[in-house]
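User: Modeling request: complex.
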Amino acid sequence: METKAVEPVRRRRTGRVVAGVAGGVADHLGIEVFWVRAAFAALTALNGVGVIAYGLLWLFVPQRAASEPEEPSNPRERQQALGLVALGIAAAVLAGLFSGPVSGWIAGPLAVALVGAAVVWREADEAQRRRWRDGAKSGFLGAGRSTIVRVLAGVALVAIGIGVLLVNSYGIDQLRFALLAVVATLGGVAVLTVPLWIKLINDLGEERRVRIRTEERAEIAAHLHDSVLQTLALIQKQAEQPREVKRLARGQERQLREWLYGRIVEDDSEPATMSAAIAKASGEVEDSFALVVQQVVVGDCVLDPNLYALVQAAREAMVNAAKHAGVGEISVYGEVEPERVTVFVRDRGKGFDPKAIPEDRHGLADSIGGRMERHGGEVRIRTKSGEGTEVQLMMPRKTADKRETGARA
Amino acid sequence: MTVRVFLVDDHALFRAGVRAELDSITDEIEVVGEAGSVGEAVAGIGHHRPDVVLLDVHMPDGGGAEVLRQVRTALPEVVFLALSVSDAAEDVIAVIRAGARGYVTKTISSQELVRAVVRVSEGDAVFSPRLAGFVLDAFADRPGAAPISDPELDLLTPRERDVLRLLARGYAYKEIASELFISVKTVETHVSSVLRKTQLSNRYELSRWASDRRLV
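Assistant: Request completed. Predicted assembly structure:
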């Protein structure tokens, strides 16, 4: 025996002429596909044994899964194969005519029926491939018009073939009786097996539901693992540092909220609306300074460059409060009105005397005041030593924006 | 006089935490009982007759709103304060409309929680900044908002709006009073009036409101 691992036979998906059986057998045996096809053709000459063998292999050998790689088909090989198929059929017909028990008037209709069956079977293969491709979204039935046409044509061919065969053997009257009997039997069987069909369909639906549920669960589990469990592990490690623990817990809480209530869709994308932008800025300040930013935004609108500047100024105000106020919580309130957007950043910390700020501390003057003025906004600061600080930022809205934001973001 | 408080939350750990905090920092409040489900809560509140119920918004079997529905008519003197981690406006507004006198988030500090409990026990409403924001959103005048059928209930007065804005900005009642040159009592009246409107107004259908709100 060879030492190579024996792989089960799989029908080829590419480079096939009928169903990829010959190719699969060739791959399995490790020989040229030409010889396998030739063998099938030769066997076909022996009273159609080759066709029967081919059909059985088609039925029982599964297609190669979509995940397995395959070499592309080769046009020359394909031509050769078509020639062999024609040769095999011709040989079978000739052999039938001259010698065998299978005479021409049987072989003809039989061949028609076989072609019809082949067409239908190929469609079944096609449907399977489609399922692989689309992730089980469409079944055999959701396949489109061309498929239905092909299947119907195949069925018609089979029916004609068998019909002609039977008419030739028994005559039209007997056939009518036989047909009636067959139809009646089929009808009876169909009625008897109705519960079975219903169960089958239900099982299929149930199986699909279970799979969807499982996938959802897996997604949630993955998310929790990536975020919550990791954070919990970090918190346990750093239990000695309350500041760090607080920061981690707060950051995780925010992330989980965003995920659960879907306020921000992606982590890295720039927020497109006022509320999302304020939420993001608050989050960043919380993360960097380990405090709580209590933020409330009323109304919402799409960000434009001016409003972006407003958010940046608000962020700067938060950073200032976090650095200098000496508090554990900052309140941020944003309100979007048709004519303007206002943001208030407030702390209950030390407060300061605005005139007494040293020259080198440019944060308030440049980052906040300058930024707002450049974009046509206003800043007001209310503060007193010991009574906290409130930075009020106001930005007028462009008139063009009003209409645009009537639609949903 | 101590305020008798009953805790309703499906997380035993959280109940234990709140109980320990309330017991340790103040004598004003006495926790008389707790419950972990809607059924337990209804039975427990009926038995203990507390002054204030601290009510979780999210619980199995209908949550805080369901407890309110089952208890409110039989025991109108019991006051409810919603306590939740939820960020979803429709959940919070639903509990308020079911009859809660206020809403605070679970991250509230112990001192503030005590103050909130005492305040609702005295008949006032308690609006956290977040709730104030939700209510402002709900009553906002914007294209596509539901029509006004009863101006008494469906519109906030400019003064009420000012009070709500300051609440949302994190101001305490006293600070609001001095900011608007009114008395603390008047601030309380405004807040109670806003609460009443939130509970009774037919301005918005809640399910629709959640998707219609926000964009001006």
